[in-house]
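Side project, low priority. Logging it here so it doesn't get lost.
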Amino acid sequence: MKFYIIPNMTRRNSKAVTEAVLNKLSELSCTAVMIKDLESIFSSFSNVEYCDSKDAINDCFAVISVGGDGSFIHAAKIATEYNKPILCVNAGKLAYLACLESDEIGLLEKVIKNEYLTEKRMVLDVSIIDKAGKILYHSSCINDAVVSRSGVIRIMKLSVSCNGTPLIHYMADGVIVATPTGSTAYSLSAGGPIVEPCVESMMLTPVCPHSVFSRTVVLDGASELEIAHDNSGEAILSCDGQTAVNIPKNAVVTVKRSQDYATFIKIKEDTFIDILNKKISG
């Protein structure tokens, strides 16, 4: 059985945790696949194959991310692109989405024995569309899409429509559209609610709104949103915290549920509430 390994080598503990993962896979007679750039770091492992392209994922059973939540979301988007399940081994601090902690790597054996469950997580399709209807940019989001101001921090006026009907206007630093998976990320920091992943929905949360009445709006997961800005300055879009792209004047951002789902491997028996109490409430 092959596993595609994506470690975040900027994490202090990532090398040691990745080595522990490779040792366990070797013990289980499994092969690890990694990008060729990592060969010089992990060359001592005989059970590792190195590749020049992510297309090698096609020959793997699953993807293993080593790092924190940011690393995991990045890897999960890659896994979703190739329709592969993914699990995260924590090499960071909080790592709310981690399947295993660094001292639980021995539980990888359960994957080989088929003693695990999978969770389907909602994904968003996000586009920037000009006034002629041309798609200028497209991305997918597992956590959130954020529209905000670039450069000088200045309040912006945002108008949001849902399914073609005007929904709300914000005077704010920006707005977040989050999935339930993303409800424990930036949306939570901006005052949004925590939503259980099985509840397919979108959370629309303003960032620092200039209003005492602005609250998160929770929408049906099948909703289609359109976000317009007031053209008074440079607006940007960021998907899952990736490099932001400019939103041209008179262009809008559209957000809807993707036909694809991210598949998270779940090995332990802890529930969403257990994780909530351990990593956030505690």
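Brief comment: The chain has six helices and 17 strands.
Revisit when time allows.
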